[in-house]
Amino acid sequence: MSTTVSIKVRREVVELADKMVKYRLAKSRSHAFNILIEKGLNEVMREVGFWEQIYRDVEELEKSCFKIAHGRLNRMLDEERHR
Q1: Cα 21 to chain center, whole Å?
Q2: What is the predicted pLDDT for the residue at 41?
Q3: Are 51 and 81 in contact (CB under 8 A)?
Q4: Is pLDDT at 62 greater than 80 in this prediction?
Q5: Distance (Å, whole) CA 51 – CA 30
Q6: Residue 8 has what DSSP assignment?
Q7: What average pLDDT score do residues 28-53 get?
Q8: How far apart are CA 43 and CA 16, in angstroms?
Q9: How far apart are CA 62 and CA 57, in angstroms?
Q10: DSSP letter (8 states) at residue 3
Q11: Model confidence at 39, in pLDDT bands (50, 70, 90)?
Q12: What is the pTM of this model?
């Protein structure tokens, strides 16, 4: 059962929650805040940092016209995110 609460958080925490949604580590901001509460800020920051680096690396590969031979990188990333 869920209960709605209203809280104030630092802008950095909201930005982190938004990144969690962007990288599909959370389904929504609400889900992101629940994960943050359960895992703790430091653990989530490490996880988001890891995925940010992965996405930057993939973008660099795409810019250099590198093609993944098996073409399943997105599926691999999605599977890893849902673990």
Answers
A1: 6
A2: 92
A3: yes
A4: yes
A5: 20
A6: -
A7: 94
A8: 12
A9: 9
A10: -
A11: very high
A12: 0.65
Q: What is the pLDDT of residue 70?
A: 60
Which residue has 């973008």 as its token pair? 59
Domain residue ranges of the chain, discontinuous segments joined by +? 11-81
Share above pLDDT 70 across residues of the chain, in percent, rounded to a whole number: 86
Choose among 29, 77, 39, 40: nearest CA to 55.
Answer: 77
**CB 23, CB 81: distance < 8 Å:** yes
Distance CA(71)–CA(83), nearest Å, equals 21
CA atoms of 54 and 46, how far apart (whole Å): 13
User: Token pair 């805040």 is at which residue?
Assistant: 33
61 vs 24: CA distance, rounded Å: 21
SS (H, E, C) 50-82: HHHHHHHHHHHHHHCCCCCCCCCHHHHHHHHHC
- Does 75 have pLDDT greater than 80? no
Other C-beta atoms closer than 10 Å to the C-beta of 50 total 13
